[in-house]
Design brief:
It contains 17 helices and 13 strands.
């Protein structure tokens, strides 16, 4: 059940999303460099609360602009460590929520302003709130067990709410290619939905969304996992106390015992990440706070290549000036190589900026590379989980 506060907040978000308003948020949807995003263990995490995400969803739906929402949790973190294609689907997302209290806890350990868990289930339920918007958001349900999507579609339309279901489809248990047949994509697009809610396994859903990104016309897309089972009432969601304590996984095992193995494996991997990466990063960041962290930028041009030098500490304090600097280079529509020979450290916020620079370049068919990596910069890449960027 939604609290009155969330319903009121979402109603305000809907007002802000009206045509001709919300210019900062509209810019954020157009330019990934505007995102307040942090690099955490190789993936991006946006530092925004639930209401901000809902505003972006409303704006994208109203403007009919493609907006892929991903909801990384511990399982996403673990899967992305060894699966480059899965990781890339997150890197190319337009918003990555922190769907998992362990991600919030790690962020607090590192002093990052990611303080609120924003789960896919919470987003969907808030959108469903009767007071949520001036017009219902049209949704297409894709996935779920046999007959579940159709059942939920009927429940959503049984009484007025913030969501109206305009279609449902269970594609079965085939491959991503099987689920990407023209007839399936055409059926989804013909629905005229504002939101495509996908209910497949995390890995398959992210692959499918990434694989069909340019073929889908529905503006807002996202993987909402077990949400459909909560909506159908076939699985009970953990009480709020369990969610706040980060024990929703324990409740899920009670409801769906077969999940114990996944949570056991993910839990061990999370402990390893905390010990081998999070704690050393926290120590490095504490040490850096004692220093005068200057950063100077340089640029030289070669044929179809802009070479940028980062001299000093590539940290949060310098992100704003670097955004303006990178925007001026993006206008040239050339590849960018970043010289790290004199870079002393890179923090999670700056890694977030580098990920967004890479995303913006890819939109135009250009590449981001790194050259002459200093030992200290290499340490930052390894600890933060971004060493793969050095081999792209």
């Amino acid at each position: 059940m939604l609290t009155k506060t969330f319903a009121v907040e979402l109603r305000e978000a809907g007002k802000l999303a009206g045509r001709g308003s919300a210019s900062p948020l509209t810019l954020a949807l157009q330019d990934d460099l505007s995102r307040d995003v942090y690099g955490l263990f190789g993936i991006p995490i946006d530092a925004e609360d639930r209401v901000s995400v809902l505003r972006k969803i409303a704006i994208a739906a109203d403007a009919e602009r493609s907006f892929l929402v991903s909801t990384p949790n511990v399982n996403f973190l673990v899967q992305s460590q060894g699966d480059a294609a899965f990781r890339e689907s997150l890197l190319q997302s337009d918003h990555c929520c922190a769907d998992g209290m362990p991600i919030v806890w790690i962020s607090r350990l590192l002093g990052l302003p990611i303080t609120e868990r924003v789960s896919g289930s919470d987003l969907f339920e808030t959108l469903r709130s009767e007071e949520s918007s001036s017009r219902p958001l049209k949704v297409f349900l894709f996935g779920g067990g046999e007959g579940v999507a159709e059942t939920v579609c009927g429940l959503l339309n049984a009484r007025p709410s913030g969501i109206r279901c305009v279609g449902a489809l269970n594609p079965g248990f085939g491959t991503v290619e099987d689920m990407s047949e023209s007839a399936i994509i055409e059926r989804i697009n013909r629905s005229g939905a504002d939101l495509l809610a996908v209910f497949l396994s995390a890995q398959k859903a992210q692959f499918w969304l990434h694989h069909n990104h340019d073929r889908l016309s529905i503006p807002v897309r996202g993987q909402f996992g077990a949400t459909i089972n909560y909506q159908a009432g076939t699985v009970r969601r953990a009480p709020l106390m369990f969610q706040r304590l980060g024990l929703e996984w324990l409740w899920r095992i009670k409801e769906e015992p077969y999940l114990w193995r996944r949570y056991w494996t993910d839990g061990l991997s999370l402990i390893r990440l905390v010990v081998t990466r999070a704690l050393p990063i926290a120590i490095d960041l504490a040490w850096q706070r004692r220093l005068d962290k200057d950063l100077s930028l340089s640029q030289r041009k070669e044929i179809d290549l802009a070479i940028v030098g980062l001299v000093g500490f590539a940290t949060t304090e310098h992100v704003t000036k670097c955004i303006a600097f990178f925007r001026s280079i993006l206008i040239e529509r050339s590849d960018i190589a970043i010289d790290l020979s004199q870079t002393r450290a890179i923090d999670p916020r700056f890694f977030g900026l580098l990920l967004m620079l890479r995303k913006e370049l890819k939109k135009g068919g250009n590449n981001l590379t790194f050259t002459d990596v200093s030992a200290s910069a290499l340490r930052s890449f390894r600890l933060n989980g971004f060493e793969f960027l050095l081999h792209c």
